[in-house]
Amino acid sequence: MSTDHLNIEFKLHPVPNRLLTRNPPPHVNSIEQYKKLYEESIKNPTEFWGKLANELLTWHTPFKTVLSGGFEYGDVTWFREGQLNASYNCLDRHAIINPDKVALIYEADEPDQGRKITYRELLHDVCRFANVLKAHGVRKGDIITIYMPMVPEAAIALLACARLGAVHSVVFAGFSSDSLRNRILDASSKFVITANEGRRGGKTIHTKKIIDEALTECPGVKRVFVFRRTDSSVPFSSPRDVWWHDEIEKQRPYCPPEIVNAEDPLFMIYTSGSTGKPKGVLHATGGYLLSVVANLKYVFDYHEGDIFGCMTDIGWAVGHNFIVYGPLTNGGTALLFESTPIYPTPSRYWEIVAKHKITQFFTAPTAIRLLRKFGREYVDSHDLSSLRVIISAGEPINPDVWEWYNEVVGRNVCSVVDNYWQTETGSIILAPFPGATAIKPGSATFPFFGIDIAILDPETGEEIKTTEAEGILAIRQPWPSIARTIYNDHNRYLNTYLRPYKGYYFTSDGVGRDRDGYYWIRGRVDDVINVSGHRLSTSEIESALLMHPATAEAAAIGVDSELKGQCVHTFVNLKSDHDIEIDDLVSQVRESIGPFAAPEKIYFVNDLPKTRSGKIMRRVLKKIVDGQTDSIGDLSTLANPEIVNILIEKVKHS
Ligand code: ATP
Ligand code: MG
Which residues, if any, are the signal sequence (predicted)? Predict the structure, then answer.
């Protein structure tokens, strides 16, 4: 794999002046300061995290041992004697001092139907609902499945579980009844929290109906709490089903927090399923909360008064961290967005930014690519001057898409923070610091505090110690929010993350480190394409294709070839008003990377297979091209199943 990513001169984007001259200044305001703090965090993690844990969290009982255990047995613990409650950290400590501060801004599906909720109100709502759960028998350690639309009650449900020390397992409300059932059974949930219906993009989602279908084969579920989002009536099965609004009326708006051990699980959550069957990972209360509170403060440069707009769903790890736990633990104001980036028009995001004066805006590359396809006129007319930090995560953000985001949304005066991490890492692994890091578009730059990166040779497993390196991204020592296990399957946890390379956490992503020490995520190790001995990453080829002005989306895969070992096939979705020749795209790749990388085949398509969180599922494309459509694998997380047959036909006839 080439180390220089693409054959283009990168414009190094310095820290925007607007951030440097700001008062208050960024929490980390020079690269030297970042390096100093980072080195401290690696050399002396115990002191570094111990200090931050006392500074950023409120403990009921102090911890004595910061870190113990390790990767050999998968017995990592952080703050093991410490006791705390996550909802106390998110709510009470702020509500006591600042009860009228807005904690949540609910931006409903229809632009004029939202509302704001203060810390006092949120604490009351969470306590009332925690008392409801308690009255129905929920106890510390129970796993509660949450399947909710993006209404404030979803956040309330998470926090009410946390208040009781119950473990929430949020399932994204776009999943089918089969996927939901599997997750309820996998977690042995006795309690489910849901809504009668959901609203998204002007459409009704029949949430309760999906729950009822799922529960036909879940005899263990004793109680279903149903929030009434719409006026429609839905089938109700007493005594199993109870109405949220009936129940909360019976309860007092205070509920003492259940004090839990730092290592008690706060939640379980399933990975996106891009590469196979999703894994239900478990996160520990103390370490998780510390990592996300620190992420928000340092990586997104959170300051008092900021309005944090994370446009994802609570059902994903990003939503847990940056809609609920990160902003609220910091005492901030978070946005909860029920709709889509294009409802009622492709200007929706920018109307929200202007209306609520969002300071940090967070979305995923899939949404940026979509809005870029619609064109900048939907962005240009809006007042985005409140924005300071604009954020992307979930997939590689290819340089061209990065430049569009920076220029059109950030207006060249915001810090663009591409952050790389995984559901399992619980928090950010690589990201720039807004006040400190000069950025090369497409690189997630440098590691966060405490993340000790090693690049391993995929064949030998040896660490590559030169500055310039290509290989597998691994992590050498535990950080606070690392997932502690896969629920009910510790052996799978060890086999997936800790056994492949002894002494390291294995991410399964490929990475490059350039001569300046910047890290470049190449895509999944299993997706690396080997053409006549040249190792090529999927993201490298896709970035080249996205440099062409006609390309809206692209996916690259490796296909077996007798001559070259493998050759490159690509799927390209063009912008609607563009018509081009295949040769134009092939030359784009030849010029950007080299002749060996030239795609053997380019399929023009209108859509790509994506997970429900919007990630391209390359494994599906590969199975289709390889003709192995009868062994296509787990498709439960595929958002657009109809695409499979369309692509099979397309490939067959080209
Ligand atoms: P599964 O593990 O079930 O196959 P998944 O890996 O997509 O699904 P997530 O935990 O949601 O599940 O995603 C983490 C992965 O997403 C990373 O391992 C990486 O491949 C990709 N990713 C996330 N953020 C970035 C980013 N900023 N740049 C590049 N890749 C990213
Ligand atoms: Mg993964």
Answer: none
Signed CA dihedral, 383, 389, 391, 396: sign only: positive
Residue 9 has pLDDT above 80, yes or no: no
* Per-residue model confidence (pLDDT) at position 8: 52
The closest alpha carbon to 310, from 282, 279, 332, belongs to: 332
DSSP three-state, residue 376: coil
Q: Are residues 562 and 493 in the same domain?
A: no
Q: Give the CATH number, domain containing residue 157.
A: 3.40.50.12780
Which pLDDT does position 275 carry in this prediction?
84
Q: Closest Cα to residue 387, out of 12, 108, 19?
A: 19
For ligand 1, whether the C-beta of 323 sits within 6 Å is no
Q: Are 122 and 87 in contact (CB under 8 A)?
A: no
**Alpha-carbon separation of residue 549 from 451, 554, 592 (angstroms):** 37, 12, 14
* Structural domain contains residue 127: yes
Q: Which two tokens stand for residue 84?
A: 């705390």
Structure tokens at 422: 């995984």
> Which residue range(s) make up the domain with 106?
4-441+453-507
Residue owning the nearest CA to atom 17 of ligand 1 = 422
Q: Residues near 312 by Cβ (< 8 Å), separated by ≥ 6? A: 318, 319, 322, 323, 362, 363, 364, 613
User: What pLDDT score does 218 carry?
Assistant: 96
Site of tokens 């300061």: 33
Phi and psi, residue 584, nearest 5°: -60, -40
pTM score, two decimals? 0.95
- Ligand 2 centroid – CA 424 distance (Å): 8
Q: How many domains does the chain have?
A: 2
Tell me if 528 is assigned to some domain: no
Q: What is the SS3 assignment for 49?
A: helix
| pLDDT (average), residues 194-211 | 97
Q: Which ligand is nearest to the CA of 418?
A: 1
ipTM: 0.99
